[in-house]
């Protein structure tokens, strides 16, 4: 095998006498000779879920159609694909029957004709789009089954519970990237629910003209897929409790309690598809107290699995010491992500204060969020947070009025969860 | 996460929490206690900084200036951690001033890095890489008397666990396994000559006589660029694992000196090999470390 997963654990393994909480950053890397090679023929099946609700009419739909047309043009011969129109219901754009077409000169031409004729009108119920995507992709033999969801508006014709239910139902059937497009009413929470559940990315694109480039990027990433349906397996002892387990790079995703219990001690967390990349996870475990000087414990064991292939296992250790300096020093990587996790929290507090009409408190929280983002080298998040600030005629800088934030706040929510690494070693 | 890696001990309740342990499993499923874990400070380490003749029983080493060189620029460090033994040999490059320091720092840092990785539970392969990277950092940090020609050295490490031998190397300091059939080279030198020999060239092959064929292609030092060790794993079979500098391997590869007795104690084997290298001419510094493999 030309590639493999490599796991490293970064932690301060020492606790003070009586200490019980152990934190560790787990880095998982897909490495190998050429893990990004496009030469690996794994088979890719792709569905585009295109929002065609009334609010898309005009330049948004024009740009979206242009991006989908370019996507169809770029499909390699033999690739399985479909285009779906989403409103308060989902319908096939191409092919007509609810199945995947096989890319070739004829089907590409027909698909582009069908896309050209698309018009906008109707509401938005994203769950119905995903349900159709599942019908198209679930039983397909391609190793990589992917949907790209594009929406500009609020998911208002179904309940959040219904959407959550559909997402759960789709888990494992396909992966899905969710794009919010334009300066409309799309919601970061909705995109994240889809992307987190279906192991994809959530992105906001206020300028619809950026869509074509985004489609290309998604295609390149899919073509570079080097591992499919990888699971992260996490073993913890019976007397220990996982306080939380979350992905912290490239994006905060809380995985606590997610995944499936495969044995009483082991939980499998699906991680989807990997190209040559690194992801980092923060594990926090509460263990039984131990004695200073005894041999210490294993708080967790971690490995990656793809089918029958398993990576080497790494362990999270706990030892107790009466050396105060050793026991109280915080691992720098743990501190790095614990610090950054405050950015989305502070933004939430800011937006709640805006909603409650307390602009003073909101401004304070936003200022702090910007400072924390800057301190962790996250210039992009800081810039999106600064977009929420406004200078009034008297020269006072304050957070924008609630009515004024709109998509800017949604962008900031998404970007504040994208993290920087302490050491960008790959 | 089955299989929980097996431990040697028979089934028994966990010494820490009393939960019955599955027969042969290493980690307690109740509290996470590691039956193979070693208490802090259990590692024993000896290095050539303090003596030329080092003996920890299952692993031993000697280093000597030889008969022709003005000083000894080799270094060796050996250690024992629980039932694992390890050794590191570094050969300073004589033409680069300061290389004796680079060899010593690299050997000491390499062995400590390797043992620390084993202690935190890494497998022997990961620990071998960790040791070499620590050695590379140490060699790079040595101050250079001649900035245009920074200190540099070779690196070879050996780890012997209950069921495997793992060697890792950068450069042309080799490892051998000595068993009833004789001495078998485990490493391929990072030079044109090393590749020729690995492809089966006889010791008297004229291509090996060209000094340029012996030019090092990989080494540790400030001018080495990023270095990853080559690593080789073999199942543990009874015998002696040797790592040495070319002051010995030159004679061993040429068949000029006899390999060690595979049943000898490591210290006796190391001393015997040093004696033979000196008797054969001692043209270079001679360093050899020996580790007992699968010997009860």
From TrEMBL, chain A:
Stored Gene3D superfamilies: 1.20.120.1690, 2.60.40.3670, von Willebrand factor, type A domain (3.40.50.410)
InterPro entries linked: CLCR, VWF_A, vWFA_dom_sf
Segments forming domain VWFA: 45-226
Matching SMART domains: VWA
Pfam families the UniProt entry points to: VWA_3
Domain of life: Bacteria
Alphabetical list of PANTHER family matching this protein: CALCIUM-ACTIVATED CHLORIDE CHANNEL REGULATOR, ZINC FINGER (C3HC4-TYPE RING FINGER) FAMILY PROTEIN
Designated name of the protein: von Willebrand factor type A domain-containing protein
UniProtKB/TrEMBL annotation, chain B:
Biological classification of the source: Bacteria, Bacillati, Actinomycetota, Actinomycetes, Pseudonocardiales
Listed name of the protein: Serine/threonine protein phosphatase PrpC
PROSITE patterns (UniProt xref): PPM_2
Stretches assigned to the PPM-type phosphatase domain: 58-293
Pfam family, one: PP2C_2
Organism: Actinokineospora auranticolor
């Amino acid at each position: 095998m030309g590639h493999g997963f490599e796991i490293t654990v970064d932690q301060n393994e020492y606790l003070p006498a009586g200490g019980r909480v152990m934190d560790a950053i787990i880095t998982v890397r897909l490495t190998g000779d050429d893990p990004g090679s496009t030469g690996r023929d794994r088979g890719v099946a792709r569905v585009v879920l295109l929002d065609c609700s009334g609010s898309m009419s005009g330049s948004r739909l024009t740009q979206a159609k242009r991006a989908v047309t370019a996507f169809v043009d770029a499909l390699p011969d033999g690739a399985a694909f479909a285009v779906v129109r989403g409103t308060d219901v989902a319908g096939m754009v191409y092919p007509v029957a609810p199945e995947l077409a096989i890319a070739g000169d004829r089907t590409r031409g027909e698909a582009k004709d069908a896309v050209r004729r698309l018009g906008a009108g109707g509401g938005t119920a994203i769950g119905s789009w995903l349900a159709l995507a599942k019908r198209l992709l679930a039983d397909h033999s391609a190793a990589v089954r992917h949907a790209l969801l594009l929406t500009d508006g609020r998911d208002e014709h179904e309940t959040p519970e219904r959407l959550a239910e559909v997402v759960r139902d789709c888990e494992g059937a396909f992966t899905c990237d969710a794009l919010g497009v334009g300066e409309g009413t799309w919601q970061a929470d909705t995109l994240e629910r889809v992307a987190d559940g279906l192991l994809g990315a959530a992105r906001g694109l206020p300028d619809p003209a950026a869509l074509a480039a985004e489609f290309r990027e998604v295609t390149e990433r899919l073509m570079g897929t080097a591992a499919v349906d990888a699971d992260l397996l996490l073993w913890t002892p019976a007397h220990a409790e996982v306080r939380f387990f979350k992905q912290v790079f490239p994006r905060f995703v809380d995985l606590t309690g997610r995944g499936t219990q495969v044995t009483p001690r082991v939980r499998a967390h699906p991680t989807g598809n990997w190209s040559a990349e690194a992801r980092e996870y923060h594990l926090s475990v509460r263990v039984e107290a131990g004695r200073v000087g005894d041999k210490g414990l294993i708080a967790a064991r971690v490995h990656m699995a793809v089918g029958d292939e398993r990576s080497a296992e790494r362990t999270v250790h706990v030892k107790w010491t009466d050396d105060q300096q050793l026991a109280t020093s915080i691992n720098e990587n743990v501190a790095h992500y614990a610090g950054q996790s405050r950015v989305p929290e502070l933004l939430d507090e800011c937006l709640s204060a805006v909603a409650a009409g307390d602009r003073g408190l909101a401004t304070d929280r936003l200022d702090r969020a910007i400072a924390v983002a800057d301190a962790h080298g996250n210039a992009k998040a800081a810039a999106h947070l600064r977009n929420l600030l406004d200078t009034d005629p008297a020269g006072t800088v304050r957070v924008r009025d609630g009515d004024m934030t709109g998509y800017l706040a949604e962008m900031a929510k998404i970007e504040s969860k994208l993290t920087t690494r302490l050491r960008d070693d790959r | 996460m089955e299989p929980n890696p097996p431990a040697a001990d028979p089934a028994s309740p966990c010494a820490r929490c009393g939960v019955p342990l599955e027969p042969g499993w290493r980690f307690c499923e109740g509290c996470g206690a590691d039956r193979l874990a070693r208490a802090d400070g259990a590692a024993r380490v000896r290095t050539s900084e303090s003596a030329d003749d080092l003996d920890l029983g299952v692993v031993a080493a000697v280093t000597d200036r030889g008969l022709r060189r003005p000083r000894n620029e080799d270094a060796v460090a050996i250690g024992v951690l629980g039932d694992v033994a390890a050794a590191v040999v570094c050969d300073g490059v004589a033409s680069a001033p300061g290389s004796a320091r680079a060899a010593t720092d690299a050997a000491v840092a390499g062995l400590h890095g390797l043992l620390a990785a084993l202690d935190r539970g890494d497998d022997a392969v990961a620990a071998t890489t960790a040791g070499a990277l620590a050695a590379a950092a140490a060699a790079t940090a040595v101050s250079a008397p001649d900035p245009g020609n920074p200190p540099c050295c070779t690196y070879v490490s050996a780890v012997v666990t209950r069921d495997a031998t793992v060697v890792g190397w950068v450069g042309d300091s080799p490892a051998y396994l000595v068993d009833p059939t004789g001495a078998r080279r485990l490493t391929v030198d990072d030079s044109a000559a090393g590749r020729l020999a690995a492809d089966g060239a006889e010791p008297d092959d004229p291509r090996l006589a060209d000094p340029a064929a012996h030019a090092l292609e990989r080494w540790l030092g400030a001018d080495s660029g990023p270095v990853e060790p080559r690593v080789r794993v073999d199942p543990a079979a009874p015998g002696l694992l040797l790592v040495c500098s070319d002051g010995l391997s030159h004679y061993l590869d040429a068949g000029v000196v006899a390999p060690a007795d595979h049943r000898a104690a490591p210290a006796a084997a190391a001393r015997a090999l040093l004696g033979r290298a000196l008797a054969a001419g001692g043209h270079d510094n001679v360093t050899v470390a020996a580790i007992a493999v699968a010997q009860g």
